Amino acid sequence: MKMKQFAVIGLGRFGSSLAKELVSQGLEVLGIDRDEETVDEMADVLTHAIVADSTEEETLRSIGIRNFDCAIVAIGDDIQASIMTAILLKDLGVRMVVAKALTELHGKVLERLGVDRVIYPERDMGIRVAHQLVNPNLLDYIELSKEYTIVELSVPGKLNGVTLKELDPRAKYGCSVVAINKKSGVIIAPAATDVINERDVMVIIGTNKQIESFEDELVGS
Ligand code: ATP
């Protein structure tokens, strides 16, 4: 079942950005922050915004927090408040609790408390930007496991007009092109005869090593 009602607790830079994006996707968002000024700034943007301390059980109960499909704890600096809020949300029976962690240890504690998803926005964004700086063709990637990754690579000019048969990443590097995103539309499971053009986006699956060798080929002359 698709989640519709979200509570975002802590409307700092991360929480407010997340909350706004959920609203722009047509979802209902309650924003909670203990700082009145912060809540005032978000009041017009979110479905509801209230001033409250999320470490107070009675407050969370009276908001009816357990009726929300998902609660996101976007408090970072105040680790004690983050942990106490996460415990209360789980105890009160919120179905899905997501929490932001600042450090690995903070994340481990949240996991032990039963938080359904722990996120590390600063760490993950740092890694992502580093990958993109090293390989200018890399648009995005998803780590499927420690070994396997899906990447989106933009096609460099030197490969304009090449067929997948000519490129042959499976035989040369062991990785596969699972889709090509062209201006004219997306080709899923492309055939050997499909042609790639400059600035098309190739979606590739493989081991990290296979993908690295393929990326080197794209960057190299
Ligand atoms: P960001 O990097 O997203 O700006 P941060 O990691 O610096 O955030 P904090 O400054 O600790 O995180 O918290 C973000 C927001 O959470 C702040 O607006 C703060 O007022 C709010 N907040 C902190 N503790 C509580 C609490 N117990 N109840 C409600 N809101 C809280």
From TrEMBL:
Pfam families: TrkA_C, TrkA_N. It comes from the Bacteria. GO terms for molecular function: monoatomic cation transmembrane transporter activity. InterPro entries: NAD(P)-bd_dom_sf, RCK_C, RCK_C_sf, RCK_N, Trk_Ktr_HKT_K-transport. Transmembrane segments: none annotated. SUPFAM superfamilies: NAD(P)-binding Rossmann-fold domains, TrkA C-terminal domain-like. Residues 3-119 form the RCK N-terminal domain. Residues 136-220 form the RCK C-terminal domain. One of its GO terms (biological process) is potassium ion transport. This is TrkA family potassium uptake protein. The lineage of its organism: Bacteria, Bacillati, Bacillota, Bacilli, Bacillales.
